[in-house]
Each structure stands twice: as structure tokens, then as C-alpha cells.
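input
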Amino acid sequence: MKLPAKVDLRADTAWVIFQVLEQGKSSREALAMAQARHSKQDAAWLQEMAMGVFRHLPQLQIWLRELLEQPLKGSKKILEHVILLGFYQQAYSRVSDHAAVAATVNAAEVLGGKGLKGLINAILRNFQRQQLAEQVSDNPIIRSGLPKWLYKRLANAYPQKLESLLSGMNQPAPVWLRVNQLQCTQPDYCNALTEAGIRFALSEEHPDAVLLLDRTPITTLPGFAEGWFSVQDGAAQLAAPLLDAQPGERILDCCAAPGGKSAHILERTAGLAELIALDSEASRLKRMTENLQRLQIHANLVCADAAEVNSWWDGKPFDRILLDAPCSATGVIRRHPDIRWLRKSADIEALQTLQYKILANLWRTLKPGGTLLYATCSVLPVENTAQISRFLQEHSDAQLLPIQPGETIEQPGRQILPGEQQMDGFYYARLLKS
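output
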């Protein structure tokens, strides 16, 4: 996973796209490496272009197949991603056609394609000449920007809401902040934003939230170093109120890193007996430690496999458990467009098995009368309502504690779809141990 020797903005962008689509790397990892070589402005451009390619990939690939007679192979494969970037710049960005062609052709040479510069230049010129940017497919799957398997699952699950769901998945995500009430009140933080000239909005359902209307570097916002706020989507901010931890209780946050929900629980509930934050990845727990330190709060962090209860549980039951289960992350595709290409249909069944195993094993660590809040950032019913419905039918000591009116054993919990009240896609279900 080596970057090109020569620093070139478009070559590095194509390299990021190649790492995700061909090597299966996460965009977060690839972007961090590439952006470190560029100014803040160029790093932002790099991310915008790469994410744009991921959102429009099916259409870009159709144009590629029309203009490239034979697929490129081996070490030259990355040059196809240079071409995809060139198409995206011409069709969907504010980059001028001339700059898109000239700079993209130069990037091909940086990536080892000196002998193919003529071919790439001809392809990009033909794209202009044939006005392909105006010839967009009317196939709904292509227009959705999603892989076929995911489109079909969504169409089956949400036939009446499909259009709005797809629109929400393809809109750029807004920035939500959660004010740390231990350090600053929401009204005081709003005053600080106003004094800094930063526009914002509030949400009736989120008493700790501020929704930014201006794109501003997070570290330059008022009170960042002092721990006045965290970045957390509005849907994720619902977890702590739904769990409703009380003073004196022992709480487990399972699959907790990077710690946003743990922090929110601690910020809104003084006097907890203990909060254990469990996660299987040490690197993520390290990041969680840094986040909690900035917010000036403390949790007991445990690195362990949540499903293997005997390896980490001390036998003392928990009053409440938040299970933020591993999932397909289909609800946050608007925030992480690469997910649509990293996730495969075959992954879903394995995730279902893992989710249910963790849920069933954690259940015995919950005391009678205790509450378990099941959460995912997925919009697929097989990971959400189907899991909770099955659990309720198979566990006689579990009962549904409704979050909203109309919940049934067959349709439990609350499903939030991407874009709903400007939130990410999320699912919550609450269970009481009788």
C-alpha cells in the first residue's frame, strides 16, 4: 500500500480510489495516507473527488466501458481509476474540462502510465466530444449509485420509501455536534458559535445537539481543546437517552469505540457506579481514550471479544447494556460512500450470525429487571427487526420495551432512514429482562 513516489494531487486521488475498489481498503485508511502529503485545501479536494467517484461509480463505469476497448490489467489497472476520476470531474464537479483533462493525463504518468498518456487523453477528449456527461442511464440501479445486491434488498424492504431512501443515502451528511453538558451548556455553546460567526440549527428531539450549517474545520470550533463538544450524528445521539442510565447503576457499552455513546452516557448521568466500555480492537480503544480525556470523563475500557463473555465478564450483572452491534453500516453510506463497494452481499449472513451470538451471550450478563438497548447503523431489516423479533420469540424472559407507538413482536423497534430529520440511518430496539 505504497503511495506514488512523486506527490501529485490527482495521482494520489486515483490511488485512494484504487485502494478501495481493487484492494478492499477502507477510504479512511487510504485517505489519511494520501491527504497527509497535501495542504488542507487540496486534502479536502482529494476527499471530495474520491467520495464523488464512489457515489457515481456505476455510471462512471458505463462510460468507461464505452470508451475503453480493452480493460487495463496488472500494474496498469490503476490507470482506469485515473480515467474514472477524469470523468467525474467533467460530469459532476466544478473543475473546468481543460483542467480535468490536462491534469488527469499528467497524473497517469506519475502512476506509471507514460506510454498510455495518449490513450487516456483521447478517452477524456472523446468524453467531451460525445457529450457523455449528458447521457445518463435511466436504469434505476445505475442511477442509485449502489451495487445491484444492495439496491434489490432496499427495494424489497422499502418499496414505498425507496426513492426518498436512495436520495438520503446519496446526500452529503451534515455535521452534528453534541454539547458536553459537564463543560458547557447548549445555550452557552450556541452563543460561542454566534460570536465566531458560525451558523447552526437546533433539533427538538436532541437537547444536547447543534447542527452546523457552515463547513468549518472541527479543531477550530470554539471549545474543541476544552472538550465542550463531540462530533456525533443526531441518530447516534439518541442512544444515551433511550438507554436512560441512572445514578448508582452498572452500565456496559458493548462495541463501544470510538466512544461517542459512552461519553454521552457519562455526560448526562452523574453518579454511575461503573461504565465498562468493551471493544475488540485495541487501536480503536486508544482513540477512545484520547476522546474521553479531551472531554474530561472516565470509563473502564476493556479490550475483548464481546461474544466470548467468559473471557472478560466478572460475574457481576449489569443494570443496563448498550449493544451497538457490528453491522453492514448501510445506514451511514452517505457519510462513508466507500461502504457500498467494500460491503458484499455474502457479508450480511455472517453479520447476522455474529449479531445474534453477541446479543444472546450478553443477555445472561444483564440482571433481572435490566434493560438492553440494541442498536445498529444499518437499514437492512434482517439485521434489525428480524433479529429482535427472533430473540423475543426464543427468550421467554425478554419483553419488548417500546420506543415508539405501534411496536409489535413482529415489527419491534425504531428504524431511522438516512436523511430523516437530517440523521443517519439507524435502528434501535429496547428489551426488558423480566
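quick obs: DSSP finds 17 helices and twelve strands in the chain.
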